[in-house]
Specification:
By secondary structure, the protein is an alpha/beta fold. The protein has 32 helices and 21 strands. A hairpin with a 4-residue loop joins strand 16 and strand 17. The longest helix is centred in the middle third of the chain and has 43 residues. It is elongated and about 115 Å long.
């Protein structure tokens, strides 16, 4: 799974390691910077060592002050190799004008290197930052070369109040103005060189800068130095250079701390804005099905200032003068887009909080789209008969009730079509041919449906269609006759032509009883099935209707769903008896689910419907927990009983939660053994999709894999002959042995497994 950092790198379009394509070239540049820094240290080493020997305490105190001033840094770009704003220019000016720069130059360079490495958390990037930080020093030394004159201007009472003094302007204010303009340019040139060596697109990197931030920091440095003489005048400290230097250092430390405070408050404000944006999006949940991205964008923009969030179809926008950030790609099936954040180069730079907004809100939007899609799919599946494509009885009743509340005077007709003798077709030709007949009848009825007609499968062999806005009863009767004539045509199947007999009846609403007659007829046409027949034919959505009330009907899918969600299922145990030892060797589990009237869902329906509802894993885990609890009670009576068999349909094999629970049980219940039975569907899943997971499951000490209700076809034998099985229960063994003669190798493997 990709980390958040790699996701951000992908969304911002940068390469690995913050856009650096060739780290070797960057290393070469770092080596060059190191050589220059070493030469600078060596150049000032003699005088620096001499001053250290003379006054080690004072040099150490100054170095600590330098460290405190330089520890502040402010990134001007999102690239970690870019230069950072520091208080070095005013610090250098102060040392120059007081004449103490040669004494502490070596220590200043060393402290700058150490501070840059600490803040960069990387030796190579720290060296680059140190080089770009110290690069303006030669220019500053040239501008303030005549330090004695400048110092005399600052500490002389004759010139303090002469703000417009030409000499002071020429030798103090003008150099400061030049320094304020040139220092950012020099650092920008250093950045361009670094980007060139790192093969970072220079134009794109330039967009990551914030001109407003650069100008603000430059003006702040200028004002800090300009106002220091005023501080000296207010303090009236005299002309002692040591005192002047001390005041300068204290003023600079205060200035550095002020910058730290402003930066910290700014970051806290940005974090607050990020939380506000995320909270706004959270308050909008659940997002609407239609254009939910517009809701997210509107909520983000409500919490942002000086930035704009919008939806973009691409993540490579290159508008001049603007910089962008993108979320992870968001897919809607037919479209892929991004949440984009835009800022001008005159606005504040991007920070990690802005990226957090896009990452979090993008994930919320993607999850909302996924949930909406699944809910729509589940609703469609729950209200659509998978065999015929018609809507279900539940949708049928819901449609009638909605029509009743919309307009009681609306003339509505319900036409019922019943496929006669379907049970005879199933018994004579088989369930497969019976399904083909039902599917064919449903397709034929759908071919003649007008726009105001909806078709439903209300029972195993009965269809119904609702006709709204009826203008003439004769038109409905004519339509029903044409549809019935088409439906009764013989159906061509692989067993030949099968005759079809379809009956029809019509119910109309009336002004007196309204829709009550339609609901009563609906109840009459849906017969109440007994408990063993609760599931509908072919594993589709099962429904019941009571004989006395149209409102009293039961949906078997809902019964099963609620039973799994509420963990109200029960387990019936079938003992497996060994005739040789005359002992019970294991217990086979049968899942029991009851409806509100106490009727029981058929076991085959429970397994198939749980798979269709994507709840097989939860069902199996519920059965597993019940078995562990019951086996603990059983073993108090029969301690030798230690095996329980559980049937699965294959969905569990790919679920990590199922594997984790099985591993826990092998440690928590070492005295129990679990026989996991795979049916005909599960063995194909295990063979084609999750063979590695099956091998890991079989490797658990207390787990045995086996087959149940399998072996009726050659393809099934070929599928499970390669699985790590411990036991098998084959149906129609004679037919199976006849089919596996086609492959002696598979037969030999199968026999070896069974033995």
């Amino acid at each position: 799974m990709a980390s958040k950092q790699s996701k951000h790198q992908a969304t911002t379009g940068s390469h690995s390691r913050d856009g650096i394509r060739k780290p070797v070239r960057l290393t070469i540049l770092a080596v060059i910077y190191t050589l220059f820094l070493a030469v600078a240290i060596a150049f000032h080493a003699q005088e620096g060592v001499q001053r250290l020997m003379e006054a080690p305490a004072r040099i150490c105190i100054w170095s600590l002050c330098f460290l405190l001033c330089l520890i502040y840094h402010k990134k001007r770009s999102s690239y970690r190799v870019a230069a950072e704003h520091t208080v070095l220019p005013p610090l250098t000016v102060i040392l120059l004008v007081t004449g103490y720069f040669p004494d502490v130059a070596m220590f200043l360079i060393i402290v700058t290197i150490i501070t840059s490495i600490i803040t960069a958390r990387s030796l190579k990037i720290g060296i680059l930052h140190a080089g770009t930080t110290l690069a303006p020093i030669p220019l500053i030394k040239i501008l303030f070369a005549n330090t004695s004159h400048v110092l005399s201007i600052i500490i002389s009472q004759d010139y303090v109040n002469a703000a417009i003094n030409p000499y002071r302007f020429q030798h103090w204010l003008l150099p400061l103005l030049i320094m304020t303009v040139v220092v950012p340019i020099i650092r920008l040139i250093c950045d361009i060189v670094t980007f060139f060596f790192a093969q970072i697109p220079i134009r794109k990197a330039m967009h990551e800068y914030s001109l407003s931030h650069i100008l603000a920091m430059a003006v702040a440095d200028l004002l800090a130095i300009v106002w220091i003489p005023e501080i000296l005048e207010f303090a009236n400290i005299g002309s002692d250079t040591a005192t002047v230097l001390s005041v300068f250092m204290l003023a600079l430390i205060a200035y550095s701390l002020l910058l730290m405070t402003v930066d910290t408050m700014s970051r806290l404000a940005r974090s607050r804005s990020a939380l506000k944006c995320i909270a706004n999006v959270s308050d909008a949940l659940p997002l609407p099905n239609q254009v939910p991205e517009e809701t997210v964008v509107r909520r983000i923009n409500r919490g942002l200032t000086h930035m704009r969030c919008f939806v973009s179809d691409a993540n490579n926008l290159d508008k001049r003068g603007y910089s962008y950030r993108y979320s992870a790609p968001i897919f809607t099936g037919s479209r892929q887009y991004y949440l984009a954040m835009e800022r001008s180069i005159w606005n504040r730079p991007f920070t990690s909080t802005d990226e957090t907004i896009l990452l979090t809100c993008g994930e919320v939007l993607a999850e909302s789209l996924r949930v909406n899609k699944e809910v729509t799919l589940l609703r469609t599946e729950s209200e659509t008969d998978t065999l015929t494509g018609a809507l279900t009885y539940r949708a049928f009743i819901g449609h009638l009730k909605s029509l009743q509340t919309e307009n009681v005077h609306n003339l509505v007709a319900v036409v019922y079509f019943g496929v006669e003798h379907l049970r005879t077709v199933n018994e004579h030709y088989g369930r497969k041919i019976g399904n083909a007949v039902l599917r064919s009848v449903g397709m034929r009825l759908s071919q003649l449906l007008p726009n105001n007609v909806t078709l439903y499968r209300v029972n195993g062999a009965e269809f119904a269609m609702i006709v709204t806005d009826v203008t003439s009863t004769s038109d409905v009767e004519e339509l029903a006759t044409r549809m019935r004539n088409l439906a009764v045509m013989p159906v061509h199947t692989e067993e030949g032509e099968v005759s079809v007999d379809v009956s029809s009846s019509i119910s109309f609403s009336n002004a007196t009883d309204g829709f009550a007659v339609l609901l009563a007829d609906a109840s009459a046409h849906i017969y109440a099935l007994e408990s063993s027949n609760l599931p509908a034919v072919d594993g589709t959505t099962a429904t019941l209707a009571a004989q006395n009330s149209s409102d009293d009907y039961v949906n078997a899918s809902d019964v099963l769903r609620h039973a799994i969600e509420d963990n109200t299922i029960s387990v019936l145990y079938q003992p497996i008896f060994d005739v040789n030892t005359k002992r019970i060797t294991s217990l086979d589990t049968i899942v029991r689910v009851h409806d509100a009237k106490g009727r029981t869902l058929a076991p085959y329906f429970v397994t198939a419907e749980a798979h269709r509802l994507n709840m097989s894993v939860q069902l199996t885990l519920d059965v597993l927990e019940t078995c562990v609890k019951d086996m603990t009670a059983f073993r108090q009576v029969a301690p030798e009983l230690d095996i329980v068999d559980i049937c699965m349909n294959g969905s569990e094999l790919g679920a990590s939660i199922f594997h984790e629970r099985m591993e826990q049980l092998t440690h928590e219940q070492p005295q129990l053994r679990f026989g996991l039975q795979l049916g005909s569907h599960a063995i194909h899943v295990a063979h084609d999709e999750v063979d590695d997971e099956v091998a890991d499951l079989a490797a658990l000490p207390n787990v045995e894999l086996g087959l149940t209700n399998a072996g009726t076809t050659y393809s099934e034998v070929a599928a499970f002959a390669h699985l790590p099985l411990d036991f098998a229960r084959l149906l129609y063994l004679v037919k199976c042995l006849e089919e596996i003669r086609q492959d002696g190798i598979i037969c030999a493997k199968l026999i070896s497994k069974l033995v």
